[in-house]
Amino acid sequence: MGSTGSIGTQTLQIAEEFPSQFKVVAMTAGRNLPLLAEQIKKHQPEIVAISEEDLIPKLKDLLKTTSNKGNSFKCPQIIGGKDGLNTVASWNSADIVVTGIVGCAGLLPTLSAIKAGKDIALANKETLIAAGPVVLPELKISGSQLLPADSEHSAIFQCLQGTPWEENARLSTGIPTPGLQGIQLTASGGAFRDWSIEELQKATIKDATSHPNWSMGKKITVDSATLMNKGLEVIEAHYLFGLDYKQIGIVIHPQSIIHSMIELSDSSVLAQLGWPDMKLPILYCLSWPKRLKTPWKSLNLSEVGELTFREPNTKKYPCMELAYSAGKEGGSMPAVLNAANEEAVALFLDEKIHFLDIPKLIEFTCEKHKKDFKEFPSLDDVLNVDQWARKIIRQEADRKKINFSQE
Amino acid sequence: MGSTGSIGTQTLQIAEEFPSQFKVVAMTAGRNLPLLAEQIKKHQPEIVAISEEDLIPKLKDLLKTTSNKGNSFKCPQIIGGKDGLNTVASWNSADIVVTGIVGCAGLLPTLSAIKAGKDIALANKETLIAAGPVVLPELKISGSQLLPADSEHSAIFQCLQGTPWEENARLSTGIPTPGLQGIQLTASGGAFRDWSIEELQKATIKDATSHPNWSMGKKITVDSATLMNKGLEVIEAHYLFGLDYKQIGIVIHPQSIIHSMIELSDSSVLAQLGWPDMKLPILYCLSWPKRLKTPWKSLNLSEVGELTFREPNTKKYPCMELAYSAGKEGGSMPAVLNAANEEAVALFLDEKIHFLDIPKLIEFTCEKHKKDFKEFPSLDDVLNVDQWARKIIRQEADRKKINFSQE
């Protein structure tokens, strides 16, 4: 799902590298029709869904006109709209669904996949962050396995294989792993790692969207610069691994070589390391519990030379604390945090607000939500507060702008 | 076994920290009778063996005269000599034997323990290095589990828990772990880490026995300075994990925080980290496959700040290459290497030879052994080449000394 995005294209690269292991049976994408058409030609899925129904004819045209390089090609079934996404998510012949749709848009199709009993390679953070209280019970009912496809949670998941966690069967059961003391999520520190708080006043979009280590989408790169990315991962880890917030730490590790760590009850620490490359965690979701043989470049620590670590500066990264607070609040609050962040980042990327306004707007919105807070939100509640938070962010940004222009 | 040594005292500290988990039922020691008497009073084992029989009356006197601090105290059975060590090693009420005797002296009692079906917390490297070809078949017969108690192999063992190695039941089966690509043993670089090759000419005993990170016995600290320690660990890893020598790497890591790493077939690297403290690997042997809760200080990477890595300089550390060569040769050669090293280090600590003579003497001895090399040595062969190698080292050191004085 989200085949033309960062996770999607890398997943398809893996499918290409391991043709005897994996077959792509279904795809969804947004508006990048030329790339989607190419992907369809190459992987020949059974079904494809595109979010906007009226783009279907255009896609069909593209499939007719582009060359298929001599391969026999059978045009897949092409459907559209939200129902289309849900149909693909629960497509019968799929064993595992890679959810690479960024943001809250990925939530409903992921829920469809879970309800259909599919295992999930979870790259869409929002599924757990916004809707943890809704998703967790569904996982119990369907028996779906949530496998983390992002680098940090994959690292934790890989390290946990060495603990007797299997006794509790699966992730996201809410039962803490026996012997697991806590985890440390590593953070590159993002684009502004070496900027002072004062210098952040001058941060531009270009500055915020240049990530030092990882090549990712714009939204996630900004989240990485605010450290909201890590804050959201903290909430995700809480739901995935059944951990209390005080068991989840963040450490700045600029080289992004240690992808995260677990601490066990006897003080032993296990870490997963590798070059910064999303393909490995995606592949592990697909091959788990086995590991496939890849020709990928071995990690060479002598070549890296040094790994450094420091505590994150909470003053510089207020989003991190906002995420911990929302997480501890629980219930509907993380959904508000997540939607507020998505909207604030969109406004920033649209040059409507300044980089430093992002945490201010989110804090304002979370604060405002307290009076309507729901401890046990339904799916509708989650979707409603999501819309509400976006509206509040836009209103508040507009109001501020008017204030500014009046000054 | 070896209760008054470095491993022994730390094992007893663990027994004290976890009185409801562990009971010390038997002990062996060498000549440190005052400490042994104290340990006996505290742990009240059923049986004690001391290597030299004629020290038994002295120990009994000590046990009578020292205060037992108001505790009721029943004097254990006390036996002596080599048979005594073997009796304790196979003592009926023991579940696991911690083999903390340094050097080839630990080999026979460890074999007794294996034959009696005891699980082994293996701190005595020589068991596998000198007698791998003898010990491995015995493990298969008795079903004993070899658990590595040294920091590096424990790290590998801990990381391997996360791989599907259980299918092959146990370590030291000679069957490689599926999905295990290779391992990297970390080396602090020892006392001469930051010395140039030229400066090594001036190395004294005091220099060689000051280890930067670990508090260990003198012999092992010198081995750490020559990197023979790491070379021997490479051979041990070969037997423990069923790895080919080309799958075993060494990386200099001065901070000794990453205790070793495994690389899996998909290029993922798992590492075990912790403060440099032997208690953790010893405890893991005793608690495996569980982990106990300890109050030990958590690793804090922000406090450590940086971890550095570099390739070992083979010119500076010729012992490392000697070990790889002997390991690849296999059969009786590692026994010769190990005995030659023990004897050369003893001569160095006795001020009979210079630090830089250690590798030269070992190389000379290994070269000389080639004509009597045994591919499948018996236990007697191992013990014989051990004695032979020691004799050659002493002879050659004497001859050289005469040469030097004639110059």
Structure, described:
The structure is a homodimer of 407-residue chains. Chain A has 407 residues and is α/β, with parallel strands linked by helices. Among the domains of chain A are: 6-144, Rossmann fold (3-Layer(aba) Sandwich), CATH 3.40.50.720; 151-189 and 227-312, no CATH class. Chain A is built from 17 helices and eleven strands. Chain A has helices at 6-17, 33-43, 56-65, 81-89, 107-115, 126-129, 132-142, 151-160, 205-208, 218-226, 228-241, 279-287, 301-304, 318-329, 333-349, 357-369, 379-406, and strands spanning 26-29, 47-50, 77-80, 96-99, 119-122, 146-148, 180-187, 248-252, 258-264, 269-273, 306-308. In chain A, strands 8-7-9-10 form a four-stranded mixed sheet, covered by helices on one side. Chain A has a three-stranded parallel sheet with strand order 1-2-3, with helices on both faces. In chain A, helix 10 crosses helix 15 (333-349), helix 11 (228-241) runs parallel beside helix 14 (318-329) and helix 15 (333-349) runs antiparallel to helix 16. The longest helix of chain A has 28 residues, at 379-406. Strand 10 (269-273) of chain A pairs antiparallel with strand 10 of chain B.
